[in-house]
Amino acid sequence: MTARDPDSAPSVLPPSPGYPPTLGASRLLTEDELRASLAATLANWDGTSDLWLFGYGSLIWNPGLPTVEATRSRVHGYHRGLYLWSRVNRGTPEQPGLVLALDRGGSCSGIAYRLDAVGAMPHLEALWRREMPMGSYRPAWLPCTLADGRRIAALAFVMRRDVPSYTGKLSDQTVSAVLGCATGRYGTTLDYVNRTVEALRASGMPDRALEALLRRCERQREAQRAERPAERRAEAQTDASPRSADNSGASSSSADAGTARRNAGPRRG
Q1: Omega cis (within 30) before 96
Q2: Per the residue annotation, which of 33, 131, 198, 218 is the catalytic one?
Q3: What is the arithmetic mean of pLDDT over 232-236?
Q4: How far apart are CA 138 and CA 161, in angstroms?
Q5: Considering the domain 31-223, what is its CATH architecture?
Q6: pTM exceeds 0.70
Q7: Residue 131 annotated in active site
């Protein structure tokens, strides 16, 4: 697995076909739109019962809000993957990064957090600004099974397939290119993925598919880094060849001229 270095940006590697993607214009949701989205999500909440939140990405290692309980859990019907182009948090509009999202099919392990109903709203508003800046997720209450067998409904952020920032299935080559260069407001995509992989493994629920993807991409980046010195040496040799030929020609011309003068002997007037 790739070593994490949050203080340095990834090295820039050669571009990959399809990256950067053409995503078109984008905008951040207004405060009114964020509040309306949160209100719609909480429409059936009585305001007194504790709330459950399902974390499957950065919420595992950086929940960013106080909780009264945290436990391993699993949701069925969705799986975790790098399905969301990030133009703010882990990338830029010119060089988008990738972040995790829940997409249809399979199941996903994560951490379920229980939030105290008292004082929950300010923390949920902050969570909405963090997770919903462009409305790329669909907040949903998913059936969730806790490690001790309890079944609860947990709030989770599910990928919307109808937005331009949905990646669909990406090739390893494209993911490798993103991991090699993308960085945004909260840091690099590479650091984000590494932190999530480490947190999942530390919690006793490793994501072997994500770990395998990281290893494959790291091998690709190592191969590309190894190729670049060889390419530079080849370019240097190519650039030097014409000069050597010119110098050799100049030396030959000088030698021929000297020979001609010696053969001519002393000049007579």
Answers
A1: no
A2: 131
A3: 68
A4: 10
A5: Roll (3.10)
A6: yes
A7: yes
